[in-house]
Amino acid sequence: MDRTADRDLKARALKVIPNGMYGHEAVHALPATFPQFFERAEGAYIWDADGNRYLDFMCAYGPSLLGYRDQRVDAAAAAQAAKGDTMTGPSPVMVDLAEALVSMVTHADWAMFCKNGTDATSMAMVAARAQTGKRIVLLAKGAYHGAAPWCTPNPVGVVAEDRAMLRYYEYNNAESLEAAVRDAGEDLAAIFATPFKHDAFFDQALPDPVYARRARELCDETGAMLVVDDVRAGFRLARDCSWSLVGVQPDLSCWGKAVANGQPLSILLGSDRCRKGAGSIYVTGSYWFAAVPMAASLETLRIIRESDYLEQMIRMGDRLRAGLASAAQRHGFGLRQTGPSQMPIMLFDDDPDLRVGFAWAEEMLQRGVYIHPWHNMFIAACMTEADIDMAVAAADGAFAATRARMAELQPSPVILAMAAAKAAEELQALA
Ligand code: PMP
């Protein structure tokens, strides 16, 4: 595969963008062959700067729910763009969208709109504190809630005071949650939870209903707000808040990524229990009230309600999982596929430094399939059986090629450095 255009762009970027790229889409911690820049996207596919095509199991890290450039959503966005986007006040579509969300999401009595998932999670924290008059927020250890100083996983540039009011518990562990609530005493503002455990580098875990119900009870007992961070999983597990699947209704839920099928929009939904607090805080942004993403979201929600997009994603996820399981077995690899099949992660047994996972991802890429070696992936509703079968056929070749390279594989220096930094941080926390 020709990658010269990407290589040239990376070299140019290095001069005018710190490290050439930053954040979750930077490819520094991926195999060296992974392209950084993409020229275009359509349906389930992306094309890199050299014109190489890949079946994309990252879906832009979540926003592509129905597929890139979905014609129905794009038409709704274009119709709104012809009228106006960022204006001196919001468009009527803001009210339509809030009504649609409140009618679909059981716990929601109101909606507020913003741009990124981090805006929604930060706003949830502030609204919970405003509502309760309390300060402490409980987070599951290792859970990702965004890139603001209070939650970024890379604490460079962050001061201890930014996190002074945060406490941590073990996800899916009701006793650990109870202990953290006890420690917070009279000062507990909120408990945050992701809908399932989807931390990078680890096997995923579905929520234990005992833990989820206990989180609800503890909030009821203490007056704290229960916050479900549905930014990554929202509308990929249910047509409602993801914890509706375990019968638990939060007070606040955070949404982003898939809600407008790729248009920039994130959402905070809340129940009446937190309406006063949410109404008392000052939150805003120059682009938060733009009408085009809201029109795109309204159409995305219509498709969510009226189509079998969710069942299709599950069918395709199951098909991929079954195909990969038998291919891995044929080639003698222990492949762990965890979490919901429509949000898969694949990690290899006996691969602590990810050298096998990296080689396999490289071999998949070479065969036109973009998979991630340590982050959960996403099935798009537009993926077909033919797409999945192509991926499984590629996997067969990729397993064979990886097997042939086993003796010469080396760990990625970037991953080793990340692991060392993490270990140092944990040691520091113990001291
Ligand atoms: N919460 C969760 C669970 C997420 O997965 C993400 C993004 N990966 C965020 C919050 C932050 O979203 P954003 O990057 O849009 O700020």
Automatic annotation (TrEMBL):
Gene3D superfamilies: Aspartate Aminotransferase, domain 1, Type I PLP-dependent aspartate aminotransferase-like (Major domain). It comes from the Bacteria. It is an enzyme of class 5 (isomerase). Coiled coil: none annotated. SUPFAM superfamilies: PLP-dependent transferases. GO terms for molecular function: glutamate-1-semialdehyde 2,1-aminomutase activity. Keywords: Isomerase, Pyridoxal phosphate. Its cofactor is pyridoxal 5'-phosphate. Its EC number is 5.4.3.8. This is Glutamate-1-semialdehyde 2,1-aminomutase. The lineage of its organism: Bacteria, Pseudomonadati, Pseudomonadota, Alphaproteobacteria, Sphingomonadales.
